[in-house]
Amino acid sequence: MILANVRGRLRMQDFRLVALALARGDARRRARYEELLLEQGPDPLLDEPGLLEALLALRTLAVPSPPLFAYVAVRHALRAAAVDDRELADYLAALLLEFGDHDRHTRIRRADDESYGYLFDIVEDLTGLDDTGERGLLLRVHLGNYSLWFAGLFPDFIEARRTRKGGPDLPYYDAVGRQGYRLASQHRLAERFGVASIYRSAAERFPTLRVAFNRLSDRVFFRNVSTPEKILRNL
């Protein structure tokens, strides 16, 4: 199960790199940021406007660790969309890291016999399943996770498939993803595992989260790719 634990993976060298990036070569500014870190903890630095751009602009041998970059990228994308929720950002950063690992996005957990290439396959498996058990929860969550991952980071692929083959559009992914997270939040195990509030928040804000991921995809992950759909999204 994916958990909101990326912030907990960050280490002192990550925070020192944040101070270095924000200072942009100014030793006095770097000292001030390091002092702020000691006085107030890492969150004010991680929320500092311009941090994502500063990390992308680093030209040193030191590079952001995957947890640092994922958390900052997601946190700043969500804040730009007026979603100021650190726990949700932490969870979605974990989703980004987890699903970015080979074919993990096709499975409800790392070791599972079933793989899912389409939302319909997940829905079909949910139908008639005894959803009171752990698999029922994981399938519900995967419906939300897969929808957000795919529609958030690969909207151009979805649009191309819709045009060529009549596949579903982005609002369809919004509806299915929202339903997946909503159902997951109501599962009896969600409260036990302490993730029900995260799923509820994701369900309530799903279209906003998807648009935030679209912008992250356009501006960070596929910044050098140009399509008509991307141009329209960024008008």
Envelope shape: globular
**How is the quaternary structure best described?**
single chain
Structural class call reads mainly alpha
- By DSSP (H or I, 4+ residues per run), the number of helices equals 15
Helical percentage: 55-70%
Average pLDDT works out at 93
**Order of SSEs, N→C?**
HHHHHHHHHHHHHHH
Strand content: under 5%
Q: Could you please describe the fold and organization of this structure?
A:
The chain is mostly helical. It has a domain at about 100-235. It has helices at about 5-10, 10-25, 25-40, 45, 50-55, 65-80, 85-100, 120-125, 135-155, 155-165, 170-185, 190, 195-205, 205-220, 230-235. The two termini are about 35 Å apart. The model has no long low-confidence stretch (mean pLDDT about 95).
Map the helices and strands:
Blueprint lengths: L5 H4 L2 H12 L3 H14 L2 H4 L4 H6 L9 H15 L5 H14 L19 H8 L7 H20 L1 H11 L4 H17 L1 H5 L3 H9 L1 H16 L6 H6 L2
Helix pairs in contact: 2-3, 6-7, 6-14, 8-9, 9-11, 9-14, 11-13
Task: Supply the key terms.
69% helix; mainly alpha; 15 helices
Question: What's the quick description here?
Answer:
This protein has helices at 6-9, 12-23, 27-40, 43-46, 51-56, 66-80, 86-99, 119-126, 134-153, 155-165, 170-186, 188-192, 196-204, 206-221, 228-233.
